[in-house]
Amino acid sequence: MTHKQKILIASITLVLGGCASPQVRVADVTVEKTTGRVNEAIAQVGEVVAREVPKPVLQSKDSVWMPARKYERSINPEDQRLLNRTITINRDFGSVMEVAQRLSMLFGVPVTVAKDALDTAPQTPEQQTGSSMPPQVGQPGANANAPQVVSIAYSGPLSGFLDIIAARYGLSWQLLDGKVSIYRNITRTFVMKAVPGNAALSSRVSTGTMNGGSASNSETTLSASTLSVWQSIEDGIKAMLTDKGRVVVSPATGTVTVTDEPPTMKTVEAFIEQQNIHLSRQVTVQVQVLSVSLDESDNYGIN
Asked: What number of CA atoms fall less than 13 Å from residue 151's CA on the CB side?
């Protein structure tokens, strides 16, 4: 091969390499991008698998299975903004209805007062703290026939003002979907894990003696008792209620309906939860014993 041929081959190689190098660089960049996306996808799959812990196929429960769960309702963001709004007030109120009317005028929201809270008189400081001291002359509650006036000077969020009104009158309040409700009592229905009806126990024991095949002395002893789970639950709840509280027990539907103040309702709820724990560990057994006597006599009759 001559010197000119060698130079020509080298020139052709350089030209071809220069033309192919941009395509090679583009391919390398594409491969790197694809590799990066694949690695990100693998990492995401690994995180999902790590978060999802497999649950056992068979789970054991110590209590009766109920297809329901209790969830606390989260407050509506619009309601939260309303509760955070500032209210400045310095005036006298003669009743809870006047408070409701004032709030409706200031905030433009409906405020309802339950029937059981309309005739509520303001509490004295001794009543709010649980003291039994009688009210002095000139204090709210000293004269039942005198107008009950409450003076309130407050500046702050609406929630704080509602708390003050509830404490002064011994009431409760709730804000739901832009509506304020002021009430004294609430009603709740609880499910009991008890078998409907009462458990009855009875027994009969007979003894006898024969004298000479003719005379006989016999004695029969009877005993009976009734166990009523529902009556016991009703008696226990009644002991917790206030003077205006009510309870309705329905063994047919397995429910207990209670109407009372919210603090009392929490006590009743704890009591029913504890009773359900004990009742779920019980079983009901019905036993019937039969006594049969056989002889070899024959009886004939004509119909």
From this structure: 2
